[in-house]
Task: inverse folding
């Protein structure tokens, strides 16, 4: 016996009795339609309620700098991490090449390639509605010539849908930065400790600890400013040196391991949120503001335990079936067994 359910609105209205009381039981076809509602094992993250912010622009960042209001910046490597960072009110979000280690499990930042960075930039940009978003240029895509760097920067902005790029290096990369900025692409500089060149530096070492080293940091910062950078990251530099460099510049400095005298601060989100197992090494400058690993571990362990003990799923987590349909289904099963 075949049965069909018509879902046309006009037919539905014609089937309803006039002035049906609110307390009357729903017709069978209504219950069937409820059961036919599309359900999914996943859903988009959506837009959780949060105060609407104006889009942060270059002019916004300049205004913050002029008012001596610290600029907040954090890394993100995918849609969820960018989503929470944007809703937390960050001024800037950096799709840093640190994702090589914290998102892709690589040994260091030199392993990630441009296409991978663009993919992560696209993911982050879909979630970022207000923050000014920057994409890192990974090692190997900008060092050969300014023309190569411009081509890479255009791809990051055009395909990655970010508002600017970041690249490491000082005086020696001033022509490269100028080439990119002349094309209308905002560039965030990065001097001091430059992780992509860790092997040439003898590892992840603090820069500017000597007079000669401090002068080199200042010269690099002035060079990238003159080349057109709208701001510059100072990494792993003594606080006193970073403060003096900041005072000499007309553009904002974003510190990471460079003290409180910078114009703003940046941290890797995975580090500061505690999304890593116990015992993992953290740089001295990282302050852990949460323990995402512990909370995730607790939740997943609870889920595993409830599945093993059949506590989950409960009736509240299952979908209903019309009693008449279930009875008919059972009857057909029994009929086939006979």
Result:
């Amino acid at each position: 016996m075949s049965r069909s359910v018509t879902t046309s609105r006009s037919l539905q209205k014609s089937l309803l009795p006039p002035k049906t009381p609110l307390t009357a039981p729903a017709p069978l076809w209504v219950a069937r339609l409820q059961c036919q509602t599309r359900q999914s094992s996943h859903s988009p993250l959506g837009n959780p309620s949060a105060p609407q912010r104006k889009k942060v622009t270059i002019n916004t960042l300049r205004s913050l700098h002029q008012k001596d209001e610290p600029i907040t910046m954090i890394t993100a490597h995918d849609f969820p991490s960018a989503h929470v960072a944007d809703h937390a009110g960050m001024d800037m979000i950096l799709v840093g090449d640190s994702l090589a280690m914290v998102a892709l499990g690589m040994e260091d930042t030199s392993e990630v390639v441009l296409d991978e960075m663009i993919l992560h930039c696209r993911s982050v940009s879909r979630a970022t509605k207000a923050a000014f978003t920057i994409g890192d240029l990974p090692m190997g895509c900008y060092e050969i010539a300014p023309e190569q760097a411009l081509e890479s920067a255009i791809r990051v902005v055009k395909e990655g849908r970010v508002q600017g790029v970041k690249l490491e290096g000082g005086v020696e990369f001033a022509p490269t930065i100028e080439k990119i900025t002349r094309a209308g692409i905002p560039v965030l500089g990065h001097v001091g400790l430059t992780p992509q060149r860790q092997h040439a530096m003898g590892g992840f070492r603090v820069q500017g600890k000597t007079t000669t080293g401090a002068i080199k940091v200042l010269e690099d910062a002035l060079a990238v400013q003159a080349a057109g950078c709208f701001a510059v990251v100072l990494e792993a530099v003594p606080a006193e040196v970073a403060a003096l460099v900041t005072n000499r510049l007309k553009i904002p400095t974003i510190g990471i391991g460079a003290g409180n005298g910078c114009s703003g601060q940046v941290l890797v989100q995975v580090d500061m949120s505690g999304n890593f197992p116990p015992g993992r090494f953290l740089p001295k400058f990282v302050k852990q503001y949460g323990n995402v690993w512990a909370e995730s571990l607790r939740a997943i362990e609870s889920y595993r335990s409830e599945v093993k003990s059949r506590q989950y799923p409960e009736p509240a987590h299952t979908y209903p079936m019309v009693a008449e349909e279930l009875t008919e289904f059972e009857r057909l099963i029994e009929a086939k067994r006979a």
Notes: The mean pLDDT is 89. The longest strand covers residues 187-192. Residues 211-227 form the longest helix (17 residues).
